[in-house]
Amino acid sequence: MAAETRRHRGIFNLAALLILWEVVGRLDLVAGGALPGFTEILARLWVDRADYPLHIWATLTASAVGFMLGNLAGIGAGVVFALSATALRLFRGVNVAIFALPPIAIAPILVLTLSGMAPRIVLAALGVYFVTMTSTVIGLSQADSRATDMIRAYGGTKRDVLRLVQFRGALPTILAGLRIAAPNAVLGAILAEFGGGGRWGLGAYLLGSLGRGEPDRLWGIGLVATLIAGASYGAFALLSTRFLGATRAVTLNTAVPTGKPDPGHPLKRAALAVGSLALPFLMWWAFIRLTGVPDMIAKTPLGVVDYLFVAPTAEAAQAKLLAALGQTLPITFLGMAAGLAFAFVLAISSKLIPHAVEAFTPVALVTQTMPLVALTPLLVLILGRGNALTLWVTISVTFFPAFVTLAQGIALVPRTAGDLPRVYGASLWTEMRMVTIPAALPYLFAATRLTVPRALLGVMIAEWLATGKGLGNLLNQSRGYLDYGMIWTVAAVSVGLSVAFYQLVVFTERRVLRRLGMTTAE
Amino acid sequence: MSAPDGIALAGVSKTFAGRGKVVEALRDVSLTCPAGSFTAIIGPSGCGKSTVMRIALGLETADTGEVRIVGDTPLAAARAGVTGVAFQDAALLPWRSVRRNVEVPLEVLRQKPAEHAERVQGMIELVGLKGFENALPGELSGGMRQRVAIARALVTHPQVLFMDEPFGALDQILRRQMNVELQRIWTETGSTALLVTHGIDEAVFLADRVVVMHADPGRIVEVVDVSFDRPRRPPLFSDPAFHKVCDHIAEVLHGG
Ligand SMILES: Nc1ncnc2c1ncn2[C@@H]1O[C@H](COP(=O)(O)OP(=O)(O)OP(=O)(O)O)[C@@H](O)[C@H]1O
Ligand SMILES: [Mg+2]
Q: Which residues of chain B have a CB within 8 Å of the CB of A153?
């Protein structure tokens, strides 16, 4: 009953939104027609219908192949990490780097080192790997300890436990991961198309149409890209709800989870830390050696150091890089802070004005499946090519995931926790201060961790496609100038920055939450 | 040369350290269960009953002391298919049907479930779940789930049978029925049985010896011999001699 009314309200909201869109679009109220009416977009889609199949096909094949390879790697790595804490520690650096890397930053170097569809596939796979790997590790290690005890009591080995309990138990978590990974693959493929030239693909189409000032076509492409990503999400959402039913344990497992396994000898720990730091660079080096691209084009870690500090052009390169950083970093922080702040305030006020927020939540959820940053060209139409564009892109790519994380976290706060202060006559504000805000804190950190790479990605895309400033622009320019050293340097620096900032958040999170006696939220 | 004891624990101690507090779960526990005997452990909640069992099963390692199952280490005994176990929690795999849950130990021991179909069916019928073979655990009541766990514990015809409050969720009538059934099965298989329970009457009805434990630290305070003739029948529950033994155990349990 309640679910039905909610669904009705959702449909009603959607219809209202579409009608509003149509009216605003028909009357050319936004930036002189930058937002066409919904039916105008559909009409244009029909006119362009001959163009689409090949573009869609190119994007779909790249994302599908990348999706499969990324999942293979993600699940394989997840199994290894679930079985061996040592491997997990050793690969921490690689995993964080893959999570934090802004895909657009490495698109050009993939194009330099690989050929054909490979860059798109790799970028799609990279977007998938982390999500799938994490959900596999979580799913496998969340196995019901009572069931694993039972297998072990019959002398079952780790493999028996994996086979009989963990795999099947992890399926819903893995499927939930695939649900998020699928749109990521589409996004990765589109971003590689931005960064790599090539004729076919929705990203290439979007980029090619950007200069022609035809809003209805750009919106049409955006709509199609969103539909593809959304459909891939929906397919896995359906699969995972079908599986969930029979997998939930019937009773609650109350066993105390055995904490982190003994970290071992300090020497071993130090070795692992060093190894985990060195491994990403080692893989970078091995990647170049394996692809066999000449040193002129492909720079190893040492090559980048050489370019930036030793070579005769080092000083000029440094100056360019610093100038770009000076433009990119402030706006990244500003956009991210604003996005997080909006999300925090809105999520918290879900206690004060539940209906308004409830109506908004489906919209926020839908955006989770959209290749948001890939839609930057649409924002260019509305906001032009100034800093406002960069800021809004960044805010929108941080706000939505942060809001979803926070809102879901706050929804987990047991109602009774809020009832207690109220029983003692506390005001709504006091209740917020005592219960809602502290309870939301772990999720604020989780949201920050999540949005660090996205914020940088948003800024770099806006810079690359539109504003002609900062790191994104430097990367794009260097492609034109065939300044290979700079391409690799910008890629390495932006990944490094993203990782460093991510680690900073993790570090702060641990300290703050430990002081408050809370645990981190996923 | 005599046969090795079914279960032998000698000088077992175990301390848990977690979340800033240290719990001495077991201090110097020694317990021998001769082959074919039935032993019950009784004691207040948290006195270490489950820990004794988990150590005997090789799921925890003792800090000190030695454990032998039919003369072997717990792991070797488990691998050889000597042990059977029913946990305090049914611990069924929620995605497997009743029949497939009962088959799990066979799969772990690398026996083909298809070759033992009859035995599996027999066990399901024994615990009164005929007609529920294909039901999922989520569709069963708490008591039915526990009966699946018992069928699962018996399906390998174990030489040594561990049971941790297997009848906890059953009503009194069913519980008595299951007690009688368990006695019958145990007599037939001749296995060494170790039963953890909170029911004094259940312990006295089933066991040759009742081990009484106290908490803080977990330790054995008395072992009470119960020498009623077998097979024991339900009327025993209202026998004055039976009540005398029960009263004595209750005294040990509550007294110093
Ligand atoms: N994995 C563990 N980590 C920390 N402490 C534990 C662990 N397992 C058991 N304990 C502690 O050891 C003590 C004995 O626990 P045990 O489960 O053996 O009790 P029990 O006698 O079976 O109780 P009950 O009758 O309630 O099942 C308890 O104080 C418990 O808190
Ligand atoms: Mg117990």
A: 57-59, 78, 83, 85, 162
